[in-house]
């Protein structure tokens, strides 16, 4: 059964999609700025400090959003919580992946998040997301992509062992 979205629901969904898209683009620009800082020997300590600040502030933000949404019982705050968790994991990848794969992994993840947000918006507006099949395919593609990115974070020496 397809649920018809009201004009207010469509407007709310549009606003959330625009907000998520703009945050994704802004975060990509911030990562580019950090990458440029990290490439210079004069500003590398500032880049590391900024990564650390982003990491812990995003974890605190995710915890605050989750607590607030549990208190108010509003699911809308889970979007902010998820974005903060994404920033936390993204900066963790920057710290623990010690070669030049860390930034491309983050940029690919941001591009994927941006594209999937647009696809979600298009499916939701056209009431296609009500179908169990489409919803499961959407979630499956997201999980598969996350798994591929997680595998890309493993050290390169591990891949040499796998190839024999």
Can you describe this structure in just a few lines?
With 164 residues, the chain is mostly helical.
How does this model look, in words?
It is a single chain. The protein is built from 6 helices and no strands. The longest helix is centred in the first third of the chain and has 33 residues. It is mainly alpha-helical.
**Proportion in β-strands:** under 5%
Based on CA atoms alone, the radius of gyration comes out at: 18 Å
SS elements, strand count: 0
| Uncertain ranges | none
Query: How far apart are the first and last residues' alpha carbons, in Å?
Result: 52 Å
Number of helices: 6
- Which structural category do the helix and sheet elements fall into? mainly alpha
Q: How would a crystallographer describe the biggest sheet?
A: none
Topology, element by element:
Layout: H1 7-39, H2 44-72, H3 77-96, H4 102-125, H5 132-152, H6 156-162
Helix pairs in contact: 1-2, 1-4, 2-3, 3-4, 4-5
Keywords:
single chain, 164 residues, mainly alpha, 6 helices
